[in-house]
Every structure is written in structure tokens, then in C-alpha cells.
Design goal:
10 helices; 5-stranded parallel β-sheet; FAD/NAD(P)-binding domain; 433 residues; alpha/beta
């Protein structure tokens, strides 16, 4: 099998970094990308500015691969997704050349001649990566190892609080979006609802609040499942990622100024159309009335279906790689040092299979590019037989950690991000909002 390539699923930031490390170590590599260009998923949110700075968004092997072309890493600043693609990810993909194949969707991974149940001779068989191209033609690629860096972007969580679409959510699809809006001008003079408490929801609320300030009659309602809005404001002065801190402070400002109406403890159970608008009902009977449009930005989940015929070890709650789940579980803490980033923690029961990047975090919302770059560095070192390098932990994160939701479902957060005291915004007692 040493003559077969390492197949990497996804030409996003981690997939390209993995290919760069593999190329540097002399490993034959094939990157299979569903989109028509490198980092196609990043391009879909290209209008959003990252809170990681340029030095945290490039991988060492990628920088070394690009250096002979005269490319130099941007020294400072916080790029948008489009700037990240144009300034680094697309040039890296170009440098990798025909190792990256576009318009190829991976539909499944298996062992040659062995379904998931069969033990005999399993480890001696190569992987078979099943694919479908843009014309619908099915193909198969044999691989010595598989690195799944396919991410979670294609699997947004529904608005329904129980993990399934709320009643009539699917039927109301023309009024519900699951991505951060780029052009918000069309919502002037209307009532827009945002569901979710993460950075994507915060971005959307801030963009819509600009319209609300300019256009009379524009209403923005922000629905949070938790019983407090504290988490939304982030770490303030204690956060070592300044753009993340700024995002939270801007959210605090628009809320306290009254531009945005916040409703806490609101767990969506039903949508219904009435008088040409959406009414949104919570589990406790409250309703938000007259929404022209809803942005459901409640996170993402991994597509585990393409790995159903290989043996994986995923956390039952997060669907994250079991070896790192305890450090990233938002039910336990708001921050983590995330020291478990190496090949040993990421390895699956299926020998030679690794899940990396955002997909390795499953439903946990705390992934950073830096973490993914360290993951693939270690994994590729392992595949190349450099076990000493694979065992090293070269990850350096901000001391404030990787922050996300924390604590009890209805309680405020606490932890290493030094969240400042804020004014509590309680649930509305009335039947409609």
C-alpha cells in the first residue's frame, strides 16, 4: 500500500495544510474537493471578517511551499474570508498543482472488499474512496490512508431546539436562512429574527442593526436558547483575540442602545405563516410575531454518513473525535487549552483513518485554524513514520483559550476568558414579543 496516495477529503484550510506537509515529506497525495475552487466553503462566507489575525491563519508547511514563488505571509491584520482565500488559500492550492482535484464529491470511504463488519484481513486492504464528479460520473480511488478534512459547513443545525427542524421549519424554507447575510439592505423596514448565540449569529445581528439604525420601521429580534445573554459579549478586555472581544462589545452596545430586542430562554418549537409573515413559537408558549425573515445560525454538525462503512470512535454527544471530546465539550467549560491535538488522539479504530479540522470537533463551536494546522502537522508526521515529530505538541494558543458556550443550559458562563460583568437581559414575561 505504500505505493498508494494519502487521500485528503476537502481543499479547505486544513486539507491544504495537510497536503503541504505531505508534499514536504515526500508522500504522494490526492486532495478531493467538492467545490469548483480551493476553499469553496470559506468563499461562501467571504464577506465575514475573521477574529484570528493573519499570523494565525497560515500554516508553516504552506508558507514554506509558497516561499519560492515570492509569496510572503501577511504580517498583521484580520482578513475577511475572501481575503484569506485570495491571499493564501488559493495560492497554496495553485502551488500544490494537480494534487488537488476539484468538482469531486466523496460519497463514501471503505476498505477494499470489506464492509464495516468484516474483521479478516481488514488492515492489509487499502481504502476505497468512492466519488462522484460534477457530471454525476462515479469513481473510486485507492488510498493507503485517508484524512477527512471535509468540515461541517454543509450541515447547518436546524432552528428547532431539539436538534430536529421545528414544526413547519422545512415548509417555511423560503423565509429561513442558515448563513450570515451579505446584503442586508433588502430587510429595511421589516422585522428580522436571528436565532443563535455564537459568532455567526452575532455577526448577523450587527449587520442587521446597521439597517435598523438607518431605516425607520426595521426591527431586529435576537432569540437565545440560554437564559442569559452573557455569553454573547465574550471576554472583553481579558480576551487575547481582540477582534473576538470587539465583536462582543459591539453586540453589547447595540443591545443596550435598544436597537436590537433580545429574548432569552427561547427554544424554538414551531413556525407558522400568518398574514404573509412568520410567527415563531417557543417550548414555553411564547411567540415572536410578524417576522419577514429568519436567520437560524445555530451552528453546524459533521456529515458522518460518508464514514459509515469504516470504524470510527466519535463522542456520542458532540460527534467529535472521542480522543479530544473531553477538552472541547461546551457542557463542561467555556475554554480549553486543547492540548490533545496530535495523531494519537485523532486516530480512529480504522487504522490509517484520521478526522481533522472542524469536523474533528463535531458540534463543538470552539475550533480555531491554529488547532487544525497543528492537527495535520502531527498526523502527516505520523503517516511519514516520524513518530517523534507526531508526538510533539507545537500548538500555541492565546492564554484566554478557545471560548464557547459553557455551564448549565440556563446559567451564565464563566471561565478563562475573564468574561466581564454585564447587565442581565431576562426572558420576556408576555405571551408575544
Amino acid at each position: 500500500m505504500d505505493e498508494l496516495p494519502v487521500v485528503i477529503i476537502g481543499a479547505g484550510p486544513q486539507g491544504l495544510a495537510a497536503a503541504a506537509h505531505a508534499t514536504e515529506r515526500g508522500l504522494d497525495t490526492v486532495v478531493l474537493e467538492r467545490g469548483g475552487a480551493a476553499a469553496a466553503a470559506v468563499s461562501e462566507w467571504g464577506h465575514v471578517r475573521l477574529f484570528s489575525s493573519w499570523p494565525e491563519l497560515t500554516d508553516a508547511a504552506g508558507r514554506r511551499l509558497l516561499a519560492p514563488s515570492g509569496w510572503s505571509a501577511p504580517a498583521a491584520g484580520f482578513p475577511t474570508g475572501t481575503e484569506w482565500v485570495d491571499g493564501y488559500l488559493a495560492p497554496l492550492a495553485d502551488a500544490l498543482g494537480d494534487r488537488v482535484r476539484y468538482g469531486v464529491t466523496v460519497t463514501g470511504v471503505a476498505r477494499q472488499g470489506r464492509d464495516k463488519v468484516v474483521d479478516g484481513g481488514r488492515r492489509s486492504q487499502p481504502f476505497v474512496v468512492h466519488t462522484r464528479d460534477a457530471d454525476g460520473v462515479e469513481g473510486r480511488t485507492l488510498a493507503r490512508s485517508v484524512i477527512d478534512a471535509s468540515g461541517t459547513w454543509g450541515q447547518p443545525n436546524p432552528a428547532g431546539a431539539d436538534g430536529h427542524p421545528a414544526r413547519c421549519e422545512t415548509a417555511s424554507a423560503d423565509r429561513i436562512s442558515y448563513r450570515i447575510p451579505e446584503d442586508v439592505a433588502a430587510f429595511a423596514g421589516t422585522h428580522v429574527v436571528v436565532i443563535g448565540a455564537g459568532h455567526s449569529a452575532t455577526h448577523a445581528v450587527l449587520r442587521l442593526s446597521e439597517v435598523a439604525r438607518r431605516a425607520p420601521g426595521t426591527r431586529v429580534t435576537w432569540l437565545l436558547r440560554r437564559g442569559t445573554a452573557t455569553n454573547v459579549f465574550g471576554g472583553g478586555a481579558g480576551d487575547e483575540l481582540p477582534e473576538r472581544a470587539a465583536l462582543g462589545e459591539r453586540a453589547r452596545t447595540v443591545i443596550e442602545s435598544g436597537v436590537v430586542d433580545v429574548v432569552t430562554g427561547f427554544r424554538v418549537t414551531e413556525f407558522r405563516e400568518q398574514d404573509g409573515a412568520l410567527w415563531i413559537r417557543s417550548e414555553d408558549g411564547r411567540e415572536v410575531a410578524g417576522a419577514a425573515h429568519v436567520f437560524a445560525l445555530t451552528g453546524f454538525r459533521p456529515d458522518t454518513g460518508l464514514l459509515r462503512e469504516v470504524r470510527t470512535d466519535l463522542d456520542p454527544a458532540l460527534e467529535a473525535v472521542a480522543g479530544i471530546a473531553a477538552e472541547i465539550d461546551p457542557n463542561i467549560h467555556s475554554c480549553g487549552s486543547v492540548s490533545a491535538t496530535g495523531a494519537r488522539q485523532l486516530a480512529q479504530p480504522e487504522h490509517g483513518l484520521f478526522i481533522v479540522g472542524a469536523k474533528s470537533y463535531g458540534r463543538a463551536p470552539t475550533f480555531l485554524a491554529l488547532t487544525g494546522f497543528e492537527q495535520v502537522r502531527s498526523v502527516v508526521a505520523h503517516l511519514a513514520g516520524d513518530h517523534a515529530a507526531a508526538a510533539r505538541n507545537e500548538l500555541v494558543l492565546p492564554e484566554t483559550g478557545v471560548c464557547g458556550g459553557a455551564g448549565g443550559f440556563d446559567e451564565g458562563a464563566s471561565g478563562c476568558c475573564a468574561i466581564p460583568s454585564v447587565r442581565k437581559i431576562g426572558s420576556r414575561p408576555t405571551a408575544s414579543v
